[in-house]
Write a structure and sequence with these properties.
Length: 229
């Protein structure tokens, strides 16, 4: 497996390279965004790890350029934990997002998980598939927005991420805990009420009749699903 590591801090880049090579991966290290783009265009890659703050071409623009041509999994690394940065990165096509400082063991686990998923999922996704259309709703990953016809539905960052996660996995039931961990990335803390409140807000925004929802369905005793009809 070939992995691109784009990181301008030499110590972090070398540490990532060492740990990935110990796991049996072949690593292409890049010190800036333009070097990383050149490596992506001239090598067969299975996954990329991109730092957001890089010289010459930052991680967001590098991600955008890569997604114009390739569909391998991409993990973003950043020192900023702002929700909108996460929404922007995911909307541009990132598959995962880690905030520095992070656990190397966690990163290795996420790399392995993304590579497993790519064998089953990414090879089936068209290169230009940045929109999810289910029922009368369209979620645009590039624009980070949800529309019904010509109407744009206003969602906050967490509401967007929850809805995106559910629409990417239609008809699959997720518990409140699974949704919380998927969006908040906090393994040691879980707030049941937070998910319930966010689901209620999303339902009020996307459903024509929130009391009789057509999309965001509650499965009693289990959790929630986005129903695809």
């Amino acid at each position: 497996m070939n992995i691109l590591v784009a990181e301008d801090e030499t110590d972090i880049r070398n540490l990532l390279k060492l740990n990935l090579e110990q796991e049996g991966y072949h690593v292409y290290p890049a010190a800036d965004g333009l070097e990383a783009l050149d490596m992506a265009e001239n090598n067969r890659l299975d996954l990329a790890i991109l730092d957001v703050m890089m010289p010459k071409l930052d991680g967001f623009n590098l991600l955008r350029r890569i997604r114009e041509q390739y569909k391998f999994p991409i993990i973003l690394l950043t020192a900023r934990g702002d929700d909108m940065d996460k929404v922007l990165g995911l909307g541009l096509g990132a598959d995962d997002y880690l905030v520095k400082p992070f656990s190397m063991a966690e990163l290795m686990a996420r790399v392995a998980a993304q590579l497993r998923r790519s064998k089953e999922y990414y090879r089936q996704v068209p290169l230009d598939d940045h929109k999810i259309s289910l029922g009368d709703l369209v979620l645009d990953k590039k624009g980070c927005c949800v529309c019904r016809g010509d109407l744009t539905i206003e969602l906050n960052a967490k509401e967007y991420l929850i809805l995106k996660y559910l629409m990417e996995n239609p008809n699959r039931v997720f518990t409140k805990k699974q949704l919380y961990h998927a969006v908040w990335d906090e393994d040691l803390y879980y707030d049941d009420n937070t998910i319930m409140v966010h689901i209620s807000h999303i339902r009020n925004k996307i459903e024509k009749d929130p009391r009789n929802p057509a999309h965001l369905i509650t499965i009693r005793g289990l959790g929630y699903k986005f129903q695809s009809r």
